[in-house]
Amino acid sequence: MIKSSFKKYNLHFRQPAGTSRGVYQNRTVWYLLLKENGLTGIGECAPLPGLSRETPEQVENLLKEITAAPELFTSRPELLAEVPSVRFALETAWTDLQRGGKQILFPSAFTSGQQGIPVNGLIWMGDREYQEARIHEKLDAGFRCIKLKIGSLRFEEELKLLEMIRALGCSYALTLRADANGAFKPEEALSKLESLAGYELHSIEQPIAAGNLQQMARLCNESPIPIALDEELIGINSREGKEELLETIRPQYLVLKPSLHGGFSGCDEWIELAGQRSIGWWITSYLESNIGLNAIAQWTFLKQVKMHQGLGTGQLYTNNMDSPLEIRGEQLWYNPEKRFHGNKVTG
Fold first, then answer.
1. Helix/strand number for the chain, H first, E second
2. Order of strands across the sheet that contains 117-118
3. Cα–Cα distance between 105 and 112 in angstroms, integer?
4. Secondary element (H or E) of residue 14
5. CB burial class (10 A; 0-12, 13-18, 19+) of residue 124?
6. Domains of the chain
7. CB 189 within 8 A of CB 214
8. Is 140 helix (H, G, I), strand (E, B) or coil?
9. Which residues does the annotation mark as catalytic?
10. Separation between Cα atoms, residue 110 and residue 119, nearest integer Å
C-alpha cells in the first residue's frame, strides 16, 4: 500500500535573480513523497508566481488530496492535467519509487557518467556591466551557446551587448539565443527583430506577450529570426488545444518546461505534435532545486538531444540538495560516484 506526504521548502538564492517578473530572493517549492515497501520516491512541485497558472493554495490543496488517496492519482495522473507542476511532481515521485527510490529515474549513459548534455550559458538580467561580466565568465568557462534575456535594458544597450559578443571574434563558433519574455509591443516587434537579425541570432523566445495569436503567427511567418514559443504554451493542456495553437502560429521552435507545460507526459505530447510539423524544440529547467533538475536532465538525455538545452546548474541556491549533477565546460554531467542527498526532504 502506497503512503504519501509532502513537505514545503524555501530555497534561498545565492544572489538576487533578475527575471522579467521581478527579482527573486527566495523561492518556495513542495516535495511530494511516495512510500511503499521501505522505498521512497521524491518529486518536486515548483510553480512560479506570476507565470504558473496554479496558485500556492491550489498546490497545497491538491497535494493534500494526493496524500489522502495516492493510489488514485498514481493510477490516474490525467486528473492533474490542468496543474502541471503537481503532475510533474507526481510523475517524478512515482517513477523514482518504481525504480528503487534512488533518484535514478531513467538509467542511461548519462546516469552512468559516460555522456553529458550540452547546455546554454544563461545571462541573468542586470545592468550592462553586470551582463558583460557574466558573458565573459560563460565564454571563459567554455560555453558556446549564450542565452541573453532582452527587455531589462534600453534596446540600444542590448544591441551593444550583442555587438560586443560578436566582436570577440568567435561568431563562427558561438550560438546566440535571445529571450524577450513578451517584452516587444506587437506594432514594433518586427522592426526590432530586423535590428536583432544583424547579430546572427539562432532564435528569439516569445517576442510579444502570449495570447496575441494572429500577431504571433504573422511574426513567425515574417521574422528574419526563428521564433520559439514559451509562455504561449502555458495553460494549453489538451491535445486538441496544442494542435490548434501549432497550426495557427506555426513557430520554428518550442521551449519546453515539464514543471510548466504538463509534466513529462505533457511535454512528450508537445514533442510528438511538433515533430509532425517539423517544428524544433529544446528543454529548459524552471528554477527547480536539484530534485527537479535531476529528473528533468535524466528525461532530457533520453530524447537524444543535439542542440544546447536550457538546463540549470543547481548552483543557484545556498540550501540546495547535494547531487551528482556537475557542469564541465558547456555540458551537464551526472557523476555516479556522488550520492544524491535528499535528507533535507526526507529528514
1. 11, 13
2. 117-118, 331-334, 325-328
3. 12
4. strand 3-19
5. middle
6. 3-98 (3.30.390.10), 117-346 (3.20.20.120)
7. no
8. helix
9. 149, 257
10. 14
Rounded distance, CA 206 to CA 210, Å?
7
- Measured in residues, the chain has a length of 347
User: For the whole model, what pTM was predicted?
Assistant: 0.94
Q: Which residue has the cell 533518484?
A: 103
Residuewise pLDDT in 10s, the chain (347 residues): 899 999 999 999 887 665 656 677 888 999 999 999 999 999 999 998 888 889 999 999 999 999 999 999 999 988 999 999 999 999 999 999 999 999 999 999 999 999 999 999 999 888 889 999 999 999 999 999 999 999 888 999 999 999 988 887 665 578 999 999 999 999 999 999 999 999 999 999 999 999 999 999 999 999 999 999 999 999 999 999 999 999 999 999 999 999 999 999 999 999 999 999 999 999 999 899 999 999 999 999 999 999 999 997 667 899 998 889 999 999 999 999 987 665 566 65
Query: Counting Cβ atoms within 10 Å, is residue 145 exposed (0-12), middle (13-18) or buried (19+)?
Result: buried
- Give 299-329 as a 3 state SS string: HHHCCCCCCCEECCCCCCECCCCCCCEEEEC
Instruction: Provide the 3-class DSSP secondary structure of residue 5.
Output: strand
Give the residue among 114, 106, 121, 120 at the shortest CA–CA distance from 303: 106
C-alpha cell at 69: 488517496
Alpha-carbon distance of 236 to 240, in angstroms, equals 9
The Cα–Cα gap between 325 and 338 comes to 9
Look up residue 22 and give its three cell numbers: 521581478
